[in-house]
Amino acid sequence: MIETTTALMQITKNLQGILDEIGFEFVIPDGVGKGELPAVFDGKGYTIIANSNKGSAKFLCGENKFTLYISNEPYSETTEYVPVSTLLFEPENADEKDVKFISNEIEDTLRSKFTTKKLEQHSSKKMPTPVSKAAVKSGLAEFDSVSLANRLTLIYTDLRDEYKENVDRYGRFLAEEFFSEHIAPAVLETIKENNPQKMKKLFNLLNEVYDNGSTDVQDMIAVTILGVIDNDQVLLANCLEYMSETLCPIVINVNWYLGSRKGKKAKKLLKNPPLYQPPKDKKSLFAKKD
Question: Which domain holds residue 108?
Fold first, then answer.
């Protein structure tokens, strides 16, 4: 857990280098002293402005989101901004790694928008926008695979590049490949380690997304990600106290099936599908003979 103001203070310090590079500086609100957080709080979230003669940037932090807006115009009360990056930020579950991750993402975006110098690892495709907690809470939306990927890469920050590469490679997010090849092995290591703090953080996320997610994302969690337990009773036992009442029986049943003869056969077919054979031409009974 980290205080929002503490996180924002660290983020502003982390961004000082890129702001100097692109010729921006933070706008100090009235009443804010030197060395204090250059932010305005409106009761819901914090707003921070960085300004220059070639454009400006606005950072909004609130409702478990950190959003970067930019404009090609210097800051004024009438400046219109467009959102270019939205990252999930949950202070109650965040730590210094999450703060560093957000700082790096914002730095990459600012550099790509306000300089001609591109980072090699910078994604050329616009990253898909995750469904917000507010939208889910209001009943207007369900968590989807993008939401799940976005939040899991806040836990497994080293997989963020793979997430971007997935979107770059296919022009959209190919969820099955990303979760099976990257997330599932990382989750398996967490379950094997069975560190209470890490397990609680992981399953708090999985429980929330599963309980409020679409059918597709529920399948991703129960089958693609937690199916990697492969009916190992020790590993399954490690998870029992952390899974929600809705997720737990599903995961048990999925793993039971995957451990059965039919389940093993199905997994074998998925890993080694039979070679494609084109259908044979059917000869008509009434075809003329030569």
Answer: 1-122
- Same-domain status, 36 and 68: yes
Contact 211, 246 (CB under 8 A): yes
Tens place of pLDDT per residue across the chain (290 aa) = 788 889 999 999 999 999 998 899 999 988 888 889 999 999 889 999 999 988 999 999 988 888 899 998 899 888 898 888 888 888 887 788 888 888 888 888 888 888 754 434 444 456 788 887 778 888 888 999 999 998 998 888 888 888 988 888 888 889 999 999 999 999 999 999 999 999 999 999 999 999 999 999 999 999 999 999 988 999 999 999 999 999 999 999 999 888 777 766 665 655 554 554 555 555 544 455 55
In a domain? residue 53 = yes
Asked if the structure places residue 133 within a domain, the reply is: no
- Retrieve residue 2's tokens: 């980290």
Domain count, the chain: 2
Same domain, 46 and 102: yes
For residue 161, what are the CA distances in angstroms to 36, 43, 158? 33, 34, 7
- pTM of the complete model: 0.56
Task: Give the amino acid at 196.
Answer: P
Look at residue 64 and tell me if it is in a domain.
yes
Do residues 87 and 194 both lie within one domain?
A: no
